[in-house]
Amino acid sequence: MKISNVLNTKAPKATIKKSGMSSLGIRNTRWLSFPYILWMVGFIIIPLIVILYYGMTTNDKQFTLENISSILNPINLRALLFALRLSLISTVICLILAYPLAMILNKSKMKSNSFIVMIIILPMWMNFLLRTIAWQNILERTGIINTVLKFFNLPMLNIINTPSAIVLGMVYNFLPFMVLPIYNVLIKIDKDIVNAARDLGANSRQTLFKIILPLSLPGVISGITMVFVPSLTTFVISNILGGSKIVLIGNVIEQQFRIGNWHTGSGLSLVLMIFILISMAILSKYDKESEGSNLW
Amino acid sequence: MKKFIGLSALLILMVLLVGCAKDDGEKVYVYNWGEYMDPETRELFEEETGITVVYEEFEQNEDMYPKVQSGAVSYDVICPSDYMIQKMIENNLLYEPNFDNIPNLKYIDGAHLESAQEYDPGNKYSVPYCWGTLGILYNTTMVDEPIDSWDVLFDEKYSGEILMIDSVRDAFAIALKFLGYDLNSTNETELEEAKALLQEQYPLVQAYVIDQVRDKMIGGEAAIGVIYSGEAIYTSRENPDLEYVVPKEGSNVWIDGWVIPKNSKNKENAEAFINFMCRPDIALMNFDYITYSTPNSGAWDLIEDEDIKNSPVAFPSDEILDRTTAFRYLGEDMESVYIQKWNEVKGE
Question: Mapped to the 3 state alphabet, what secondary structure does chain B carry?
Fold first, then answer.
């Protein structure tokens, strides 16, 4: 998987550091990875196999593809398409908001810069569920925004329990996951490269599109993955901010597990995984720079 | 230094002793709903019997079921709901308690044992613990007519003011009862009709909720909500404008009951625990704490507050109860039919 890409966004410079490390004798420290491998087998590989098993069998342990093909059921298909649409919208919004912010962070002076980064991370200190419930209280008809609007005799804002509220919830919750990887890449871009571009006569727009943007692509791609994937699979945000009126594929899967139908739930999860893998494959085409993601 | 060694030796000895006491002592593993028992009653049980209570909680019947079914953990006493008790009986997971060890069963009201027969024929496996009805909670300042029927949930006048229940069986129970059918219906045409009704309702609904209905109704977010009677006592305490009614078309009556799973290792302790929970003074403590109606007539006799004793919410009259039916487990296939239809309603 592209774990290394997601967790560790590398600017070109990082490559040099890595090759330096191997000369220090990485072979002798290989055993250090043992706990992680154990963890990975126990909590990633085995569960995946279990999901695969449940997804491909019936209650009587017979092989079947019915669980997977249940995605073609019009209701499930609609939920999947709607989830794809909402998560695409929120990913685009996150990108539009996050890129300029990351650029500003990169350009600003060191002190205020770490302060702003902290402001971005600060909300994550509180549980995600609580923050989403807080949004419900803000957007509700008797909520904070509408109470203020009502006081000034302004028209009410009626977006709670609509798809807009869900997109808002996704953008709010996942924005830091877009800002941080982009910022991490931008900060590692050698200032001399930018200076050289300017030196050679590129104007600021050309520098942005021909130098900074291509170099920051690995960060953008991790950001997109880290926003798109959780948005696609969420069921909590759509439950809380959508008033359960809007059914996304995550809600369908959750419901299947809740009623104890692990087989259909696993089958649908497998379909969702396929979509995630496809999106990662497409993304990695634009991400030839980064290392350690040779899955495709 | 000597003092230190002495002290630590003493400490180790104490730990060992406590550990031994715990290991040898009698235990009972209880698995109950969250916030569903006065913790003090457990302490009293421990004091009186010397049996240690190991207490765990679950959120939903569906969380509890796979744990018990797989046999991964062996509990001694569990408190599932009606249809789940039936499912467990049908799947051969329950032990038939020896009712000679539960003499306090005599305090459980006959009418409730009667309705428990719907899911536990002959009352062989379960002892009712709490019960309640499903009904409408409405804000008297936001509606302009007396409400006594499910039809307000389908009335365009209240578009956007309705909080519908987000639970398959409950939602269909409402539609089926409104149409005059049995809420345990497995008839395809009846279910189709109910689905069509719920589909018509979809645009009128503000949100589908379960637990959140409490806070939303207290805050005046909606005029009408569907709620369980046990919550209604709490909500009207918080907001006096809220009133609860069991609609005239009839509704669901649910019962949560104590059962002993087959793989229990302390069956006699389990019976002692159930017997203790049926004792009137203990049942009363639990009723005061969780405000869900108790089927224990001995406890009802002990209630001092006349308002609560005669509350139509906590203790509805027989006339209301005659209109209510308990859920039956309809089998896995029927369950998926219900869910498919419910998804069609919400997939609009």
Answer: CHHHHHHHHHHHHHHHHHHHHHHHCCEEEEEEECCCCCHHHHHHHHHHHCCEEEEEEECCHHHHHHHHHHCCCCCCEECCEHHHHHHHHHCCCEECCCHHHCHHHHHECHHHHHHHCCCCHHHCCCEEEEEEEEEEEEECCCCCCCCCCHHHHHCHHHCCCEEEECCHHHHHHHHHHHCCCCCCCCCHHHHHHHHHHHHHHHHHEEEEECCCHHHHHHCCCCCEEEEEHHHHHHHHHHCCCEEEECCCCCEEEEEEEEEEECCCCCHHHHHHHHHHHCCHHHHHHHHHHHCCECCEHHHHHHCCCHHHHCCCCCCCCHHHHCCEECCCCCCHHHHHHHHHHHHHHHCC
